[in-house]
Amino acid sequence: MNTDGRGWIVRGLAGLVLSGAALVANANTPIPNGKWSFVWTDAKGDTTKPIRVYTYRPRACDTTCPIVIVLHGMSRDASNYRDYWELLGDHYKVLVVAPEFNEEHWKGTEGYNLGEITKGERQKTVFAAIEHLFDEVRDGQASYVLFGHSAGGQVAHRMALLFPENRASVIVAANPGWYTMPDFRQEKVMNPFPYSLVNVPGGGGEQLLRKALARKLIVMAGENDNDPDAKNMSKSDGAEKQGATRLERAENFFKTATTAANDLGVKLNWELIEVPGVAHSGSSMSKAAAEAVLGKK
Fold first, then answer.
1. What radius of gyration do the chain's Cα atoms show?
2. Is the CATH number of domain 9-294 3.40.190.10?
3. The model scores a pTM over 0.85
4. Which residues lie below 8 Å from residue 191, measured CB to CB, with a gap of 6+?
5. Where are the extended beta strands (E) located within the chain?
6. CB-based contacts of 98: which residues, under 8 Å, 6+ apart?
7. Taking the domains of the chain in order of start, what are their residue ranges?
8. Contact 276/77 with Cβ under 8 angstroms?
9. What are the pLDDT digits (tens) for 163-200?
10. How far is the C-alpha of 74 from the C-alpha of 160, rounded, in Å?
């Protein structure tokens, strides 16, 4: 181990809950006060891919405070994202846990953004690693908040869609560049997986979607994240059909979810929040997400 004035446009359901119920005592790796990091091997998943985990524990918290797991963007800079949440951790009294899925072990879009779900080994995916990490650090907490920005936002929304058995009380996907659209019907979508749930690995697109629509997912988009030529914007055919900008793609993702929920006759438990005055900023979107989720406790 090593040391180391809102005005939002909101659509959908707002009730958000953090749980700290005492179910399991004593974390395998307790989080100490202040900033820290440790290298963790996922014994339940892929033991060949050690993960450095950056943490922050406020002075006002013991190890039983609520947990927020924070997912970095494509720069793989988990320490920066941990730092974005430091003052937020102090203010809202939460433990911050930021795993770093480095390029060496989690290569490219397939390895990180898509979570390696296409390899068909669910317990070796990024999604499973997040759940296993929660088990490693929890000290009685029954659930956690998951926040991901940019590429991490892609991981976060796919966690909701493809790994609905997760224990996140709420998932926030902030400024994803493109999406797996929430529909499984060939006649309704133009591109199969990874751009939709058509031909999703392992099958069962309808069952996955029904479960996902019932979970608490916030899609968060900066109103100024509207540059069609923004750096790292995917220009693939499937992504372009979702919209010209990240903001437009977020709106179309939510519209698709609304239509799918209506067609399936199920309740949509998702929100779309558009944050004014913010573009593609990890720090600003972290602050907005904390206020949206933790400010309602």
1. 18
2. no
3. yes
4. 198, 237, 238, 241
5. 9-12, 34-40, 51-57, 67-71, 95-100, 144-149, 168-174, 217-222, 270-275
6. 53, 54, 55, 69, 70, 71, 72, 78, 79, 81, 82, 85
7. 9-294
8. no
9. 999 999 999 999 999 999 999 999 988 899 999 999 99
10. 19
